[in-house]
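Page 37, continued from 36.
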């Protein structure tokens, strides 16, 4: 439920808490973030929806905060939903969240290199 959602921290430099979803569901763009750590490396799973379906999904390596997502050492995957031919409509955000987490775990934190 939307009332159960965690909203983003006010400070973009603060690391996001580990293994909690954070949301900016403002219709367009809508974005969701999930911070994970594997083998001492920080990752953010990032879902983005814009004017049209489907959701897009990215795994960002070497990042723990919103600000760090755009720093030089952050490594962005390609759209993993596109890579694996997965599509979710705007109202299927819960399914999109489950899928990106399962893809991450399936590949044990490995991201396709650009």
């Amino acid at each position: 439920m939307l009332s159960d959602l965690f909203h983003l921290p006010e400070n973009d430099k603060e690391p996001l808490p580990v293994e909690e979803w954070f949301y900016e569901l403002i219709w367009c763009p809508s974005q969701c973030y999930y911070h994970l750590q594997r083998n001492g490396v920080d990752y953010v799973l990032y879902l983005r929806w814009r004017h049209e379906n489907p959701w897009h999904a990215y795994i960002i390596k070497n990042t723990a905060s919103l600000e760090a997502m755009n720093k030089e050492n952050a490594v962005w995957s390609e759209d993993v939903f596109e890579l694996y031919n997965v599509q979710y409509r705007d109202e299927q955000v819960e399914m999109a969240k489950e899928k990106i987490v399962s893809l991450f775990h399936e590949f044990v934190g490995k991201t396709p290199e650009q």
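The CA atoms of residues 26 and 49 lie 10 Å apart. Flag for discussion at group meeting. Residues 2-106 form one domain.
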